[in-house]
Amino acid sequence: MSLHTQYLESFLRSQFYMLRMDGPLPLPYRHYIAIMKLVKTGENNWSLPELVHAVVLLAHYHALASFVFGSGINPERDPEISNGFRLISVNNFCVCDLANDNNIENASLSGSNFGIVDSLSELEALMERMKRLQEEREDEEASQEEMSTRFEKEKKESLFVVSGDTFHSFPYSEFEDDMIITSDVSRYIEDPGFGYEDFARRGEEHLPTFRAQDYTWENHGFSLVNRLYSDIGHLLDEKFRMVYNLTYNTMATHEDVDTTMLRRALFNYVHCMFGIRYDDYDYGEVNQLLERSLKVYIKTVTCYPERTTKRMYDSYWRQFKHSEKVHVNLLLMEARMQAELLYALRAITRHLT
């Protein structure tokens, strides 16, 4: 995160406030929730402020797991090492080098990972699509009916991006050797099978949709959180805005590039996977801007972070610097957190009314 210092400051402020400052939950509760990342027992009756505090902590650490695994900050088990863990090393680079942007893009390019299309051509093609979409948007806007159809198509397709341990974009054997064995956290979990489930079953004709305009963070979630857990709303809002607007106007070797379209596509695709739709957004842009390998990476990092591999990380936008991919991970993390908060806070709002 130190590659993006403005965001890091905002992140640390909000995390410190959740864990250390005055709040509804006692300090030990906060850290236990952070460790286990789920509250399933429900043995005690919680007040609404305590519940909101717990929900914010859960959403924060669920999302943080995506960033940690997506950025390669996870140790691999190694029986030959005395403590059982070692840092992941790929193409002679160690994850400790990644934080310094140690020419990791060259490491990605040196392997044969997914070298079907030359990475430079990939980059140029992406920029050309961005330019074409901008021109089309200026010439003629899609109708509401067409935008709704495109969202439904993207939502259904997102259900098929990842299934269990199978990555549909690539043969399973490509990833078999890369699967990461996670550390044993069973002591904190009552139900080891409890985890992410798609918001709808495959094959269902009418998939549920959460219309963002009916319950937004800005108009609804923010005020509820701030009312029941003072000031955290301001800190979260600052963090969301920071990551959404963060830009250096660069794409790999290109400068003076407006990346707004790309950042919005990444953020909205995560929400689309959770069934959240923005009426004013054309989801045809997602299909144009996010290649299949990137969608696999996003779905895995967002929903099954422990399955993320370095090969997946290398498979998309191979010409981009590591710092730019960390920027992608920050967007995915905050979009995932906001999606979880929207569902939870909407449920609490309904309970109150």
List keywords for this structure.
353 residues; single chain; 55% helix; mainly alpha; globular; two-stranded antiparallel ribbon; 6% strand
Termini separation comes to 40 Å
* Shape descriptor: globular
Helix content: 55-70%
Class computed from helices, strands and strand pairing: mainly alpha
User: What order do the helices and strands follow?
Assistant: HHHEEEEHHHHEEHEHHEEHEHHHH
Q: Number of DSSP strands?
A: 10
Give the overall pLDDT as a whole number. 79
Strand content: 5-15%
> Structurally, how many domains make up the residues?
1
Helical segment tally?
15
Which strands sit side by side, in order, in the main sheet?
Answer: 1-2
Based on CA atoms alone, the radius of gyration comes out at 20 Å
Biggest sheet layout: 2 strands, antiparallel
Low-pLDDT runs:
81-117, 163-177
Q: Care to describe what's here?
A:
The strands form five sheets. The protein has a two-stranded antiparallel ribbon. The chain has a two-stranded antiparallel ribbon with strand order 3-4. Strands 5-6 form a two-stranded antiparallel ribbon. 55% of the residues lie in helices and 6% in strands. 33% of the residues are buried. It starts with a helix and ends with a helix. The protein is mainly alpha-helical and 353 residues long. The chain contains 15 helices and ten strands. It has one domain.
